[in-house]
Amino acid sequence: MYLTYVLSKIRAHQRYRRTLRAFTQLNDHLLEDVGITRNEIEVVARRQYDQ
């Protein structure tokens, strides 16, 4: 059980880092097309961590 929990947290953190990296590489125009601002990147990436 504990190992499953730890592995799920590791995978969640990996999703968070991937999302954060992907959005930070976009320019402001592309972010606007997606519907977020540069200030919202952390919030959107954090949602990936919580899932």
UniProtKB/TrEMBL annotation:
It holds the Pfam family YjiS-like. This is Uncharacterized protein YjiS (DUF1127 family). Residues 7-42 form the YjiS-like domain. InterPro entries: YjiS-like (IPR009506).
